[in-house]
Amino acid sequence: MKRFVIAAALVAAGAASAFAGPIEDRQALMKTMAKNTKELAAVAKGETPFDAAKVKALLQVYVDDSAKLPALFPDDSKTGGTDPTTAAPKIWEDQAGFKAAAAKLGTDATAALAAADQASFAKAFGTVASNCNACHGTYRIKKN
């Protein structure tokens, strides 16, 4: 039953985002990644027990979403949307760098899928999280 509820929520979220614009789509993607980051950080710190299946499922979201990221920043999405965008102009000025950052996130998340225990996961997740920090530092406008 729990799997059905999760699957239904994912389908509903996917259907809702299918009708949104690129700003809303990328904001939804980033919110999901932020939620996953919190969960994975708790595992990496040993605050939550290591569950290989759950960790792999959450990491797979990074792999999948990193491939989607570049397409969610078309030229006509620099401003607008229902919430103000925090995407920095640097994304459009340095498309090659932004695409490389997204690809590196995917590569490092794929490598982290091999973690077999909390210790190996914690090390691999540090690398994955550093991608998030580096990209946000370069390609995101800081909120006040």
UniProtKB/TrEMBL annotation:
Keywords for this protein: Electron transport, Heme, Iron, Metal-binding, Signal, Transport
Gene3D superfamilies associated with the record: Cytochrome c/b562
Single GO MF annotation: iron ion binding
Residues binding heme c, per UniProt: 132, 135-136
PROSITE patterns reported for this sequence: CYTCII
Leader peptide range in chain numbering: 1-20
PTM comment: Binds 1 heme group per subunit.
Gene Ontology biological-process entries: electron transport chain
Keyword match Transport: yes
One Gene Ontology CC term in the entry: periplasmic space
UniProt protein name: Cytochrome C556
Source organism of this protein record: Labrys okinawensis
